[in-house]
Amino acid sequence: MELYYYKRSVGVAILLSFVTCGIYAFYWLYQLLSSHYKLNNLPNNAGMDIVLYIVTCGLYGIYLGYKIGKLESTAHHAMGMAPRDDSILYLILTIFGLWVVVYAIVQSNLNTMVDQVQMRGPHGGPGYGPGPGHGPHGPQGPQQGPWN
Q1: d(CA 80, CA 63)
Q2: I need a surface site. Which of 9, 16, 23, 43 has the fewest CB within 10 A?
């Protein structure tokens, strides 16, 4: 499975979300949702999710906290990782207005998934990570992937 996702610094994303008075947070949420839709081979509805979030004055965002937890759980399972369902935790944090904590946790989990894919190669085999006999481009030579 190829991972069409770029790692993002959690601290920088949080800082930009506050400095831009939440505008960057919408972009960040869009990227998080898009990545999860792609990981789950689902149609990308992230744009509609953001529109509904804005139109409902944030009420749909409470549901998104739960939804992104479910998407994350199925993405873990699809990648062969142990699935863990944090959807209730995300829902509770979102209800209490701690959306930035939810985004940070989801971003950290996505960054971990990217690291694991890079360590085992895009198709589940060895390569792309440090190890004996592996150069900086893996055993097959330079590859142009979505994470380069």
Answers
A1: 26
A2: 43
4 pLDDT above the threshold of 60: no
Instruction: Report the interhelical angle of 59-78 vs 87-95 (nearest 10°).
Output: 160
Nearest to 5 by CA among 24, 29, 32: 32
Query: What's the first-to-final CA gap in the chain, in angstroms?
Result: 16
Q: What tokens does 90 get?
A: 């995300």
- The span from the CA of 43 to the CA of 9, in Å, is 26
Handedness of CA 22, 27, 30, 36 (dihedral sign): negative
| Structure confidence by residue, pLDDT tens digits, 50-96 | 999 999 999 999 999 999 999 999 988 888 888 789 999 999 999 99
Helix, strand and coil content of the chain, in percent to the nearest 5, comes to 60, 0, 40
Cβ-contact 76, 82 below 8 angstroms = yes
* Residues contacting residue 87 through CB under 8 Å, at least 6 positions apart: 65, 66, 67, 68, 69, 70, 72, 73
Chain centre to alpha carbon of residue 86: 14
Domain ranges of the chain: 10-120
C-alpha to C-alpha distance for 35 and 130, rounded to whole angstroms = 25
